[in-house]
Design a protein that fits this description.
six-stranded antiparallel sheet; 131 residues; 6 strands; alpha+beta; rod-shaped; binds zinc ion
């Protein structure tokens, strides 16, 4: 059992066990059965909420929101970029400029392949100018 499986099983046992115990104490055998079913659903909901929070946290810390900021001309948004199948792959905005991610940085790539610092992601903030 790895750490993620251990966390999932622990959450399941605690949430489902608490609901089953509480409803069983209130309504007897029907309460235990309903508590188990309700506890299983509550555990799934709790785990899904936990996954959404973790994804949100990761985006805020390292990925940046949106993942591709406005281009240098300010007219293209995240959905306006197309991935070019170059080596390494890079993103081209509708203006024809090329960009790529370097960790928390979003760099502009000139036609010679030289990387020019453009923006960097400030955790829990926004994209800021990269000096
Ligand atoms: Zn553009």
């Amino acid at each position: 059992m790895n750490l993620v499986e251990f966390i999932i099983c622990s959450v399941y046992v605690v949430v489902c066990g608490a609901i089953t115990w509480w409803l069983g104490a209130q309504f007897g055998i029907i309460g235990y059965v309903a508590g188990f079913l309700l506890g299983t659903l509550a555990t799934m909901g709790t785990l899904m909420l936990l996954a959404f929070v973790m994804i949100w946290f990761q985006k805020q810390i390292s990925l940046g929101v949106p993942s591709r900021p406005a281009c240098k001309n300010g007219c293209c948004t995240a959905d306006d970029y197309k991935m070019l199948e170059t080596s390494p792959p890079m993103w081209m905005c509708k203006c024809g400029d090329c960009y790529d991610r370097r960790g928390k940085r979003f760099v502009r790539i000139d036609p010679d392949g030289k990387e020019i610092p453009y923006l960097r992601w400030k955790p829990f903030g926004s994209w800021v100018a990269d000096e």
